[in-house]
Amino acid sequence: MSSAKSPIPMAAFAVATLAPLPLLALGGLTGGGWLWAALLYMGLLSILLDQLLPLVESDGPDGHEFPAADALLALLGLLALALPALAVHGATNPALSGPEKAALVFTTGLWLGQIAHPAAHELIHRARRAQVRLGVAVYAALLIGHHASSHRLVHHRFVATPDDPASAPKGRGFWRYLPRASIGGFIAGLRAETALRQRSTRPGLHPYLTYALLSLTALAMAATLGGPSGVAIWVLIALHAQLQIHLSDYVQHYGLTRAPLPDGRYEPVNTRHSWNTAHWFSSALLLNAPRHSDHHSHPSRPYPTLRLPDDAPHLPWPLPLAAAIALFPPLWRRLMKPHLARLAQEPPPPPSA
């Protein structure tokens, strides 16, 4: 298969991420084939297109402003805040059948976990306060507002070490990893934010209180739209999206570790500490999140310019397919074993200047 020689265009990011939303909107209002089309898009089409379209190996231009990229992030963030409300409305609509309601809830969770999450992740890494706040609002609406703290203050600092709840050691299956990733991430982020405030002369409102207030506002909206059933549906959608978030962290760091140094610290983060994929369509769908090594090296680099380092570990499957495999730990461990063994035999990259 030949490789594409140009970076992913902005139009591809926009089309890939936005295309499921009209299907979900129409399906939530009228049911029928729109919902099944949205489910097939999120569940199967991305995997199929990744097999048909060439891999992307080239890099986007660096050092440029990307107003279209920022506009897409803002649009995705705002749509992510509205979509759960639409799903609650549809799932409490007696005109929709039980299977249609299940498809609406499941597909909404997929979109929020696979597309809204990368968008919010990009936003919390931006310098502008308005963008960070939008990213926080998206996570809080998904009842995982603390991810904005644990990801930036804990994961990026301690990735690929035992101190990072989001990094899975070799051999640990996803379902054993999940409780520590979720509960441990909450606690680690709380400690990091509290420590920051203890050192500050103007600490302000604790972010965890902000996350709680935003999440309660989201649940109040769910109750207004659908009563107790609306709240239950919103929580179910949020939990499904959270599962996608934790699966992404699990897959992108499984079995990769930073070597301890004589002084007790760990070696600096390098390209060897994240798994990457080069598949064209899922890269567009996930806003280049599969180019994960470069993100850890340059957290503020805009997603259109993220690169695929030659010495970075590469998964043979698109990220959504890898996440699906990870749901079955024995299969995941068996398939990952040769890739970890090969990586262990390769020489480490030279230290960066």
UniProtKB/TrEMBL annotation:
UniProt KW keywords: Cell inner membrane, Cell membrane, Iron, Membrane, Metal-binding, Monooxygenase, Oxidoreductase, Transmembrane, Transmembrane helix
Segments passing through the bilayer: 35-56, 68-90, 132-149, 208-237
CDD domains per the UniProt record, alphabetical: Alkane-hydroxylase (cd03512)
Pfam families according to UniProt: FA_desaturase
Principal location listed in the UniProt entry: membrane
Chloroplast keyword on record: no
UniProt keyword Metal-binding, yes or no: yes
Compartment list: Cell inner membrane
Membrane topology, from the record: Multi-pass membrane protein
Annotated Fatty acid desaturase domain residues: 105-307
PANTHER family (UniProt xref): ALKANE 1-MONOOXYGENASE 1 (PTHR38674:SF1)
Family, as annotated: Belongs to the fatty acid desaturase type 1 family. AlkB subfamily.
Protein name (record): Alkane 1-monooxygenase
Source species of the chain: Fuscovulum ytuae
